[in-house]
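Lecture 7 notes: from sequence to structure.
We start with the chain below.
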Amino acid sequence: MSIKNLTPYVFFDGTAEKALQLYERTLGAKTEGLQRYGEAPETSKARTPQNKDRVMHACVLIGEARMMVSDVPNEGGSAGRSNIELCLDFDDAEDMARKFEALAATGEVTMALHDTFWGAKFGTLVDQFGIHWMFNCATQAK
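Predicted C-alpha cells for the same chain:
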C-alpha cells in the first residue's frame, strides 16, 4: 500500500497558535510537533524576522482524527490561496511520483517534487477542479 493517509492541512494568516489554543480548550485537541518558521534552515525564504514566531507546521489530534496546521508566511499577500489543502502521505516515493504526475497532467504543479529539510520528498499541485494537494513521502527514518 503506497498511500498511508489523507490529512486535511489548514492554513491561517498569523492566527494558527490562537486556533490551536482554542481547539485544545474547546475540543480537547492535542498539538504535536509544533515548529516555527524561525526554526527553518537559514536558507529558507520563509525564515524572516516577521515570520519567526509564526507556526510553520503542527499536527493536531482531535479524538482519533488528525489535521495539520500552518500559518502562511508573511510575504505581503495570501490573496487567492486556499486555506485548506489535502495532504497525501506515501510510503513509496516512486508510486508517489507516478500519482503526482497523473494528477498534474490535467492540473497545475505549484511546487515540483523535491527533497526537503524535514527528510521527505514533497510537492504540491492544484487539480483540474481547483483542489489543492500536497504529496509527502518520508525518505529518512524519523
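Points to note: The two ends are 20 Å apart (CA to CA). The helical segments are 16-27, 93-104.
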